[in-house]
Amino acid sequence: MMPTSTERPSLRERKKLATRRLLQRTALELVARQGYANVTVEDIAEAAEISPRTFFNYFPSKEAALFGFDPEREEALRQRLVDQPATLSPLDALRAVFVEEVCTLSHELGELGGDAATWLRRMKEAQGDPQVMAARAAHAAKMERALAAGLAERMGVGEEDPYPVLAVSAAMGAMRAAMRMWAQLGETIELAALVDAAFRALGQGLPPDCLKELVNGKRKGRSR
After folding, report:
1. Hey, which end of the chain has fewer CB within 10 Å, N or C?
2. Angle 162-185/90-110 helices, nearest 10 degrees?
3. pLDDT, tens digit, for every residue of 85-144?
């Protein structure tokens, strides 16, 4: 996560962040060249010129290095949802949380160096591996449970109420679709703008042309 404080991180924190980014970048590059099944934690550590023991100080697995899995992030998202202004509808509260989250994601991808959308495409390509698919599915399920619990708390309803589960599932689908479009379009459009538009379209009942103006406008701008 990005630091919430406006204070400059300490030298130690900056070095830790630099090592974390190096490991993510190395893992993505190796998997892109060799395939997920042919890359081990030891390979990533060797290419990054650190020990496997040091790798595990930053990530519990190679999946975590590839995708940034972080249990603390789930709780942070749940709490941010609970803390959204009471005047927002459930869907608008989810939209605000996800837009903030993808701003953080695009910032983190940008810090890897080069085109952030390219790194996202590499992540998507790695997800074709059955082990990765299982890990991603488990992670998504935990994320959905945490957010549904947060939305239920925010709405003052029991966790057995079906609405929070339905709303969060729809929200996760909208975010995944926006991220897929962003990876295809490259950095000609901001990820946060796509997520915001996808959520607004969801709230409008998903009219067929809901994203055409946004996407086509950016494509025209790119061709000039």
Report:
1. C
2. 30
3. 999 999 999 999 998 888 777 666 666 665 666 666 666 666 666 776 777 777 788 889
Token pair for 199: 């959520």
> pLDDT by residue (tens digit) across 38-85?
889 999 999 999 999 999 998 888 878 877 666 677 888 899 999 999
Q: Which residue has the tokens 């709405």?
A: 155
Tokens found for residue 79: 């709490």
d(CA 45, CA 53) in angstroms, rounded, equals: 9
Contacts of 32-40 with C-beta under 8 Å, sequence gap 24+, read: 32/122, 32/125, 32/126, 35/129, 36/126, 36/129, 36/131, 36/132, 37/129, 37/131
One DSSP character per residue, 99-133 reads: HHHHHHHHHHHHTTSS-HHHHHHHHHHHTTSHHHH
The predicted structure's pLDDT at residue 217: 55
**pTM (two decimals):** 0.66
| Separation between Cα atoms, residue 62 and residue 41, nearest integer Å | 6
The answer to whether 168 touches 151, Cβ cutoff 8 Å, is yes
Triad 175, 179, 184: Cα angle to 5°? 150
Strands in 40-180 per DSSP E = none
Contact criterion met (CB below 8 Å) for 151 and 184 = no
